[in-house]
Fold these 2 entries.
Entry 1:
Amino acid sequence: MKKLLNLLAVVAVLCLSACNGATFVSPSEQSVNFTIDGGEKGVMVSSDGSWSVGSSPDWVKTDVKDSILLIKTERNETGSPRQGDIVLKGKNVEATIHVAQASKCTHITVSSSKVEFDKDGGTETLTVDTDGLPQVEASDGFTASYDNGKLTVTAAANDGGAKRGEIKLTCEDQSTTIYASQKGNVCKKCGGTGKITCPTCRGKGLYDIDAGGGSAYCERCGGFDPPTSELWESGRKGTGRIKCPDCGGTGVGN
Ligand SMILES: [Zn+2]
Ligand SMILES: [Zn+2]
């Protein structure tokens, strides 16, 4: 009887971990990257019960604090990049977190030097060839991240005018820049140029003032008309273009 009680006790203890085993285990990151120096990163793990670290690469240390999985790596002295998977186990479910660590960065090459977005925005993915872990910086209006050989660039819907920016990837002394652009709302009156044909001179820069063939330089579009005809030579023809009144010269529409 005592033996049976012991057995029940063991079953009860096992039950605490196994019987409440999670039926879903969902890490906040599917992959975690470390530079050559290593360090510690935390990944939030959502679950409906208990889970544990089933396996992890031998160069990775893990620790669980509440629902956070701490992942630690030392400096990578192997001379080459390394990667592997951490497998989290619930009751009958598993989740994988890919871990990669750089050794040294000698090159970064991106599949395109530019990304273009429509006004509605969206996400573009470029392929990155590198042996390091590039840090990514994006200009305002764009967001970018690097993971596992892919650069993902996102632009939100653009309610303003056309945008331009840069995405810069840097690792150690290597760097490369991608130019990002996004279409915006264009002023219908000027087609986005910010200028329209001068209505006074109809774009000619001068206009007729009498039937005898006399003409005046158009001041509305930047010309200078001398006060007397003797000073005609000091005059200047107008450009024939004026600032668009609808957009105030910005080219941006509604
Ligand atoms: Zn004019
Ligand atoms: Zn305009």
Entry 2:
Amino acid sequence: MKAWIKLAIATIILAFIIEKCIIGSPNTERFSKSIIQKNLENQIGNILTETGKLQYSGYQLFPTLNWNPNIITSTTTGRLRLKKWDFYAVYTESITICVALADLGYFQNAFITIYEKNQEPITYEKLIPLWDQGELSDSAEVGKTFYNSSSFFVSFTNYNKNYKTIIARNDKIDIDLVFEKNSEQESMVYLGPFNEEMTQFFYSQKIYNYKVHGIIIVENRKYELNQELGMLDWVRSIWPYQGGWIWASGMGKYEDKNIALNLGELLKAKNATEATDDCIIVDNKLIKLGVVNANKSVKDENIWEFYTVNSEPNEKFGSIEGTFKVEKIFYKNINLWVFQSLLHQHFGEFEGKVTTLDGSFNFKIRGMLEVYYCRW
Ligand SMILES: *[C@@H]1O[C@H](CO)[C@@H](O)[C@H](O)[C@H]1NC(C)=O
Ligand SMILES: *[C@@H]1O[C@H](CO)[C@@H](O)[C@H](O)[C@H]1NC(C)=O
Ligand SMILES: *[C@@H]1O[C@H](CO)[C@@H](O)[C@H](O)[C@H]1NC(C)=O
């Protein structure tokens, strides 16, 4: 046998052994029953312990805990492991935009994704090498996220806790928006461990129902936004090598109320996780939901079904039941074997019913559902 054939066979066998025995399969187990949904209301202290582990597991409506990642970022491995992103989205009747700057430790990624209703979604992105880094904000409400090069510009600036500008441009797109909220607006601050030891975790703040105005220009098409709704997904996290999520996010006006929906299925350390980030927000008020599962319908592949695993609401959380109707799917796959990022982003409409001890209401809003798998 020729030497190169032997080498090729040996490489394939080695890759197979690494894949099966070392990398293994990811933890895709989901919660199939209710958990306590611990509210860490008014808790004061540091999010991380002195050794860089997550100190709490649960959720809050307002952030009262202190995020100081110095213990992690003081080492090179820590810096490489910390995954951060500031992601903004607006879902209007005619256009959905997602704009973000993400920092994966070994490179950064700025992107703009645009979905004009019933058109093919488009994305523009820039992979940013280590020697050309942008900066990311100190918290969801303080500081500045910024990247600029000759071909791509993003700038998310907090002027105060309730007022920020979201600017992004390249040669095809020009986004210039103001995001405003009020001090009473509740949000989903989430602290979730990925492992028992709490050394891997997801710390996020999702703020929905920002009032948005400004201009979006896509090539030669101009959209003027006035009193639309926007959201922020602010994440600082340490992941297992294989990660992923199913994340549903929607917003819209329905029967004179501003309604937002956030459903999340992350990999979880089952016996260390004390809350999920599933919730509905009506104007300023957040309704915590019990554990929600989302699944593609077996009857129609363009429909996803979601429901709380407990069907009955209680004093700590409500229940939900509904569907997501997919209009378009955007695929963004990078597969370098050891590094993978496989994103299926579905755009469409949510419809459903929420029930709490106070009664129930229906909603119909626009948004998206992401299915993501990664090795990083
Ligand atoms: C962004 O970079 C370009 C050159 O690459 C420069 O001309 C421009 O002034 C910069 N803008 C800001 C706001 O820094
Ligand atoms: C968590 O579950 C694992 C098995 O999945 C078990 O080995 C471990 O002892 C449990 N830890 C706690 C704190 O209950
Ligand atoms: C949801 O989908 C998963 C994976 O395909 C499947 O294992 C599970 O049984 C489904 N659950 C329901 C309630 O359909």
